Amino acid sequence: MMNIVLSEDSNKIYEVKAAAAEQGYGPTLYDIVMSYIAPKYLMADRKEVSDAARKVWRFMYDNRKAEYDMLAVPEEGKWKTRDGEDIPFLNHAYRLKKKLSIYSTLVLRDKQFFANESDRNKREQMLPNIIAGIVLVLYLVFLFFMTREPELQGGDIQHAIETEQYR
């Protein structure tokens, strides 16, 4: 979940006002939002950034800078340390150079998230719940179609009228 607003400084930039994602999926959420708002940019809120959000922005800046077009934030809107130093990962607006399809993004992040042995075990523990959810949905769809009144079509309508089954 992410709440974004168009920046007061530029109509080419959105600011993240709030974001929430499962552990490890923060950058994926940001990528999906950037793909959606393209060709506009995305930047951190100018007033408040949580520790979790700082980690996401830092990760994108330190590890994936080559994947983004970046705009520097104007001097008056820059984040600074207590010593007055710029915080570079918060002082840029980001835009993906290549929009990602949601499916390929999620598959890629899924492989990264479940990369080590303990994570694969978590995935295996989650799998029965996922399968149970799919089975439940299929069962509900089956019930929906089995309990519906059949619709009359074409010649069936004329026959129903003649035999007084249709009112």
Walk me through this protein's architecture.
With 167 residues, the chain is α+β, with helices and mostly antiparallel strands. The protein has 2 domains: 2-113, no CATH class; 118-162. Helices cover 45% and strands 16% of the residues. It contains 5 helices and 5 strands, in the order E-E-H-E-H-E-E-H-H-H. Strand 1 and strand 2 form a beta hairpin.
Give the tags.
167 residues, alpha+beta, 2 domains, two-stranded antiparallel ribbon, 5 strands
Q: Indicate how many domains the architecture comprises.
A: 2
The multimeric state of the shown protein is single chain
Mean pLDDT: 76
User: How much of the sequence is in beta strands?
Assistant: 15-25%
- Specify the biggest β-sheet: 3 strands, mixed
Strand order of the main beta sheet, please? 1-2-3
Number of helical segments? 5
In short:
With 167 residues, this protein is an alpha+beta fold.
Note the topology.
Layout: E1 2-6, E2 13-19, H1 26-37, E3 41-44, H2 51-63, E4 68-72, E5 92-96, H3 102-113, H4 117-146, H5 155-162
Parallel strand pairs: 2-3
Antiparallel strand pairs: 1-2, 4-5
